[in-house]
């Protein structure tokens, strides 16, 4: 009834090529952005910001990056954590070693460094594919873990290998309250989401998808696999690197290499697959699922326990958390192997006909 | 020289244990096309079950017969692994026939979480010990030949021998028995196998059972070596480069890969490590696998990947 | 149909999700002194995290029965973080919302992450026996309290002990000491001090990192077998310790020549090795296993005999249980001290607790009264010294239990102090902090 495109005519090419061709979609996205930027800062409290919203935003940016590579270009990676680490440590070094380095520039340069390494570690993708590639990218992960622990230069010779950043400042705006940090992350995420959306609609995105669907066929029609694959690695690593810099600078404030361990890489791949491969929206769904669900279970289970009059031990709760989390992953993959994003698009399809499906 | 031999031997024995875990990966991948990340969790559950069942049976029977307790433990753990295999097939794999590799990979990660949670809920999250009577003290050999002799760890030696026996047994099982042939047929082509009357579901249960048994042996060996606790799941990460190096579909590949990785990482850590600050063995293994992949994308023994358009 | 059910389930789940997440912050209200308890009862380090957490919680339980802290009741809540830094930060944020007034993070990684946050939130951070060593300097690290000892204290005493075994620190010249350490900020903390000491005494320091979680150490011990260091320092946690001892046994390295940090000297580290660990020594954070002390008997009588014990009864009095107990005691005494100044019977704020911790003075009389006679030595903190005590003993595993095997050592302030000052100043410069002056301290 409400979600209907009847009567929306496109009279120009520009109108036909815009991101959201259905007016309701456009309103919805603008509404969502307005809600996130204006209403959420008024509604949420500090805990929400610092423990849930900021991690959610940063990790969805990282998941977006991984999705460009895994979902759009079909190259499975288990090294995303390493690129987050490179982004974070590179940004840290730009901040520490160059006086008066602007914060945002340092983060973007962190992203650029991650992109450079992304190209390097993307080279095996020219030879190997699938699970072999996934394990090959793990080499990047372990190599980076080791390098940041062992090579003192990266951590400015901090004796413990842990680094921390001084206060965050952008053009005289000191970012210290949780709300400001949240808005800072939000700005990054919105900007990068639009970039990602446009990239995937552009020639380069189409090349990635052609490679994903059938690389030999893509090659035959004149797509250079080397350029397409390495550009996917570069762009994806850039996104992931910026997310890493945000994770270190804004969320943690001080960090050690363990913050970007192999678990993080798995987590990011999870987000992409649960959320939906090859979907921008899916990255956000996936991040929400993976970030919020464990925290929710951790808080909800004791409540549930006290309702039925059982006190569950802390260990019991976290075991139950593991079991339920795992079961939900299995459940969602069985019901919808294409991820939460597919559920979303099915919902939209149904909504078009609602309430008169026939 | 003696030290070089010692390092080699240490690497070979560690490598044999890696092969054991890698074998679990290969078995399941061959038969169902699933890259089973839950292998580490299976090792943990099997070892936990074994340790706890033998502990409980000792307490219940009041006996101090180590042998009986261990037998009960092994039988109990075997039963647990069977239930796991059955449940995985019944509730997960059966519903995911013909899905993409990435989806199946994620599902096994989900299974890993469930197994870790269930295992620790039922069996506890402390350190438990498995005592199958492994000797702990080293022996020194060839003292006449080299100064200081060559130190051999008896426990490692026995473990490696056990692993070798198991691997040989499995190879025979796969190549010579009817079930083994059925498993290979399923691996080659699900539909063709089904059309000649091989029951797909039963085959999967069998192969997960076999992987469960391999996990149990790995669990007993590692558990007796370092105690049964949560870190056993990380053994899977050490075995990944082995699988890749040897080829995902090759049983001999898992063995040779394990030996190469084992020797390579020990030698690199001991001879190269001191110059770069140490702690390099884990990434060195992966980089070794990576270099092999650049020349042979299907691993050393994997089936050649043919692209069809 | 299938889709409708799914959509319904998803809608219900999301409503439930958001309500639960929003509601947690609202329920915090304080008439009680709230003690957050960050624990890890699962994951790779559970076996060691469990007894600590049990001791901590057990100590808090009987306090209410005895009328609380001058009438103020205690409440506590555990939050499981599995030794993962980001989950630890989430726990911190969650429990902070419930009016937490002091945190004990039980992980060096989490301590690093929280050091900046605690300053902003004005919540003191007690890191008894872990955390960053330079935070002893309270005039820079206003909110950190590495009570009883930092890793630099441990490293310093370890060298003193080895020196004594060799017959004097001057005998260390030309000797070789290997440090087998957990490759993380925790394991790397002692390195600067050991390097300093190596320069002083002319011994050679060999660094052997072990990757998390530490189950693969064959190469490490092969190197030890080749290089035959005179002593091995073990800086491990969790499964890494027992693996190290087993590998030492397997390569024939004498356990008598091994010395662990206090996190590598508890029952879970050696129990499973049993007789193979005989002769292995470890530093203690003042206390060892104290099954005969009065406070343990009190705990058994007041908590376990009433069936309220958190963990198994056999564990009471074990090394890590005692450490949890003492950590809780330090927190409680900090609050008590704060009440002396800000009003007895009132709920203290984070800033007030901080003052209490900074002016902690547990003399022998107080310790005896609480049942800690023989367990630990007096602790007195000040603005410049947030550690309060730097005494350490060594205990040795005799195959079935830990027994003390040395006298008390005190870390050498002449070595420690300049390093602490330098590192703290570097931190202050990085963060643009001003060192607190004497007047600010007095406030």
Automatic annotation (TrEMBL), chain A:
The chain crosses the membrane at residues 27-44, 50-69, 76-95, 101-123, 130-149, 181-199, 230-250, 270-293, 300-317, 323-344. GO terms for molecular function: branched-chain amino acid transmembrane transporter activity. It is a multi-pass membrane protein. GO terms for cellular component: plasma membrane. This is Inner-membrane translocator. It comes from Thauera aminoaromatica S2. The keyword Transmembrane applies. InterPro entries: ABC_transp_permease, LivM-like. Its main location: membrane. Keywords: Cell membrane, Membrane, Transmembrane, Transmembrane helix.
TrEMBL record, chain B:
Coiled coil: none annotated. It is found in: Cell membrane. It comes from Thauera aminoaromatica S2. GO terms for molecular function: transmembrane transporter activity. Signal peptide: none annotated. One of its GO terms (biological process) is amino acid transport. Keywords: Amino-acid transport, Cell membrane, Membrane, Transmembrane, Transmembrane helix, Transport. Belongs to the binding-protein-dependent transport system permease family. LivHM subfamily. One of its GO terms (cellular component) is plasma membrane. This is Inner-membrane translocator.
Automatic annotation (TrEMBL), chain C:
It comes from Thauera aminoaromatica S2. Residues 1-28 form the signal peptide. Residues 36-398 form the Leucine-binding protein domain. Belongs to the leucine-binding protein family. InterPro entries: Leu-bd (IPR028081), Peripla_BP_I (IPR028082). Keywords: Signal. The lineage of its organism: Bacteria, Pseudomonadati, Pseudomonadota, Betaproteobacteria, Rhodocyclales. This is Leucine-binding protein domain-containing protein.
